[in-house]
Amino acid sequence: MRIASVDILRALTMVLMIWVNDFWTLINIPKWLKHAGANEDYMGFSDVIFPLFLFIVGLSIPYAIENRLVKKQSPFLITKHILIRSFSLILIGVFMVNYGTAHHESILIGKYIWGLLMACAVALIWMNWKKTSISKDWYIYLQILGFGILIFLAIIYKGGTEGYDWMKTQWWGILGLIGWAYAANALLYLYSKKNIVTVGTLWIILNILSVANQKYSIPQESEIVNIFSVLFTGTIPAFTTAGILVSLLHKKLSKTNLKLFYAILITLGTINIAYALLTRPLWGISKIQETPSWLALCTGISMFLFVLLHYVTDVKKRTKWASIIAPAGTATLTCYMIPYFLYPIWVLSTVKLPEYLNSGFTGLLISLGFSFLVVFFTGWLERKGYTLKL
């Protein structure tokens, strides 16, 4: 069963993510729209988008796993799917985050060709070839080619300010963080047998870990600890756990007592926002520092947004307005990857827009238009059967 509000919230978030990710091309835009700096006690509009997407990942997990259980898939096969999907997200995320720190002059083919080939490799490996017109005899060869390209890119990679660094996990990248949060939460949901108490307990534990990480930062000596630090620090996976908790409450109450469901979410959202504001003097509100106050504030906002969209789309059935962005919710990875093709091509073309088109309100409008064009192109690819699937 698909919940309209989940798909629409995912689509809206993806459109906004593409928009804010394009802000690097703009000048003279309001500070409140941009990411806050590393040492700022502040949250810009851009700092809400990623937590909202993590929350949506959690909203989707129960329905995705239930669909597999209905199809009589064993826990072993579902676990295998979860681990492969998580590893895929982490792998793509590592390549993407290293693309950002690549040293153009030191790489054999230059940074932008490197980035374009990376995007091509991702498409070759994770394309849902079964939906295309390509003969099935070619599937495995196309995927092998994709992996070959990734290996080649890893071999020739040079990064850092002087071009001396090889690829590093760094902060895992957006997709990598999603991969870690998805793995931990999907496995917990599967093996907790949909137990809302277990999920709620994990959510509280992750919030406590977020606080503990501010007071006693994770030691950096152990490489193993560093690898799993996304989970140990609590903040990132907590957004996804909150989404699972909301989905379980929805399953339990939406058909029998919708008003109680809304009341619980509004109460939880209010508590989170109040907690964020009360604890702000202790840690500040910072995405880069992953503070507990930022976690609580974004969790509260996510809960309020879900209540609003659920009422509009699932109760009042007003969904036509969202049809224009639907591909961003159904072919999300495809939508996210398209700019990774377009940006290198744009830079390599040396074509530049006049400065006034990249500035202020005009620049923001053009950037938003770019986001919608990406979504429309995603829809066209989806209709032709070319979508990425993990």
Secondary structure layout:
Elements: H1 4-21, H2 46-70, H3 75-100, H4 111-126, H5 139-156, H6 173-191, H7 196-215, H8 223-227, H9 229-232, H10 235-253, H11 258-283, H12 292-315, H13 326-330, H14 332-349, H15 360-384
Helix pairs in contact: 1-2, 1-12, 1-14, 1-15, 2-6, 2-10, 2-12, 3-4, 3-6, 4-5, 4-14, 6-10, 7-10, 10-11, 10-12, 11-12, 14-15
Structure, described:
The chain has 390 residues and is mainly α. The protein has helices spanning 4-21, 46-70, 75-100, 111-126, 139-156, 173-191, 196-215, 223-227, 229-232, 235-253, 258-283, 292-315, 326-330, 332-349, 360-384.
Care to give the gist of this entry?
This protein is mainly α. The protein has helices at residues 4-21, 46-70, 75-100, 111-126, 139-156, 173-191, 196-215, 223-227, 229-232, 235-253, 258-283, 292-315, 326-330, 332-349, 360-384.
Task: Give the percentage of residues in beta strands.
Answer: under 5%
Q: What structural class do you assign from the helix and strand content?
A: mainly alpha
Order of helices and strands: HHHHHHHHHHHHHHH
Q: What is the general shape?
A: globular
Fraction of residues in H or I helices: 55-70%
Radius of gyration: 21 Å
Record field, number of beta strands: 0
Strand count, sense and barrel status of the largest sheet are: none
Q: How confident is the prediction overall: mean pLDDT? A: 94
Uncertain spans, ≥5 residues at pLDDT below 50? none
Task: List the main descriptive attributes of the protein structure presented here.
69% helix; mainly alpha; 15 helices
